[in-house]
């Protein structure tokens, strides 16, 4: 394995989403708007879950953690891209590049495991509802969330460490708008076959383990739903996991396309990366809000409570005057 001190490159240049500066500005304005919407939507869900006592259940506990991850995940790539476009300097130092790669996989890997845990939560809720509160108690949920972070850290550390060992002697232009494993691997000036195998195996083990849990969870859910006699009962049972299933498809689909293959740059890679780094964190709160009446009611109550507080404050101020 090559040692890091053989590298001559101290910084990289990110090509961005387009080679045209005008298009770069257009994408920056668009991504800034999407980023603000992502932060606002996910922060709104976190606030609603922690403020409204009706949402004190494992499902919403995991949902608030998912929203926090989405905020962190989108913050790894978008702000740096905006800074580069505004400063007209698309450079990033070697250490910043590895750090961006590390946190990208930390939050992305943790989200993979969290979505898997959420599938198990839905499995217990639908297939074993009488024991749901016993099995999915608060302490166990905290342990599950802790496990997702530890597993995500192990995954990201492995990816970052293997990439850090690669020697970079030039060229130093990354054909992407952020630092990731494959765009960096193709720039290495040595044979990366074994490191490529390790990287793909690491991503493959995560994908396979998550896929198995997701598959068995949803097979059990579908089997249980089909045994429900009333159509209304089947509809309610399916609606509780439909939002999660959509999120899983939107997140895992692009990730499988990007990471479970050799490090070769395809023209569609940037577009696919936008799906899971920009659009998915934005869509998650929308999907859960539109398909979940409890969350919508909580947001309405939170808004009404805020309006009532402002009104009371205004009345007290006028009374003092």
Distance between the termini: 75 Å
Number of helices: 10
- Assigned CATH architecture: Up-down Bundle
Largest sheet: 3 strands, mixed
Radius of gyration: 22 Å
Helicity level, as a percent range?
over 70%
CATH topology (level 3) name:
Rhopdopsin 7-helix transmembrane proteins
Q: What's the CATH superfamily, by name?
A: Rhodopsin 7-helix transmembrane proteins
Rounded average pLDDT: 82
Strand arrangement within the widest β-sheet reads: 2-1-3
The global form is globular
Please tell me the total number of domains: 1
> How much β-strand is present in the residues?
under 5%
The CATH class assignment is: Mainly Alpha
Secondary structure tally: strands: 3
The helix/strand class is mainly alpha
List low-confidence stretches: 307-315
SSE ordering:
EHHEHHHEHHHHH
What does this structure look like?
- With 321 residues, this protein is mainly α.
- The protein has a single domain, classed as Rhopdopsin 7-helix transmembrane proteins.
- Helix 8 packs antiparallel against helix 9.
- It is globular, with a radius of gyration of 22 Å.
- The N and C termini lie far apart (75 Å).
């Amino acid at each position: 394995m090559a040692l890091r001190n053989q590298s001559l490159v101290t910084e990289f240049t990110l090509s961005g989403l387009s080679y045209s500066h005008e298009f770069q500005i257009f994408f920056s304005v668009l991504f800034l708007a999407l980023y603000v919407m992502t932060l606002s939507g996910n922060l709104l869900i976190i606030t609603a879950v922690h403020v409204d006592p009706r949402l004190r259940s494992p499902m919403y506990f995991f949902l608030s953690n998912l929203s926090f991850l989405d905020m962190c995940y989108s913050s790894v790539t978008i702000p740096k891209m905006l800074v580069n476009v505004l400063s007209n300097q698309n450079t990033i130092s070697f250490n910043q590049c590895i750090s961006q790669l590390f946190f990208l996989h930390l939050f992305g890997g943790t989200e993979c495991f969290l979505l898997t845990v959420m599938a198990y939560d839905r499995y217990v809720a639908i297939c074993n509802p009488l024991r749901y509160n016993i099995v999915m108690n608060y302490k166990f949920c905290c342990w599950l969330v802790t496990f997702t972070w530890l597993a995500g850290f192990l995954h990201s550390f492995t990816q970052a460490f293997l990439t850090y060992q690669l020697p970079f002697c030039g060229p130093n232009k990354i054909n992407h708008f952020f630092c990731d494993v494959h765009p960096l691997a193709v720039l290495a000036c040595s044979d990366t076959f074994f490191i490529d195998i390790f990287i793909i195996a690491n991503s493959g083990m995560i994908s396979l383990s998550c896929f198995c849990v997701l598959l068995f969870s949803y097979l059990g859910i579908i089997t249980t739903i089909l045994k429900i006699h009333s159509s209304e009962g089947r509809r309610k049972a399916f609606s509780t996991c439909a939002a999660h299933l959509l999120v899983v498809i939107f997140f895992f689909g692009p990730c499988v396309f990007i990471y479970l293959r050799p490090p070769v740059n395809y023209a569609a890679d940037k577009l696919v990366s936008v799906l899971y780094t920009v659009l998915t964190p934005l869509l998650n709160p929308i999907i859960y809000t539109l398909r979940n009446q409890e969350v919508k009611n909580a947001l309405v109550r939170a808004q009404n409570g805020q309006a009532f507080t402002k009104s009371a404050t205004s009345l007290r101020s006028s009374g003092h005057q």
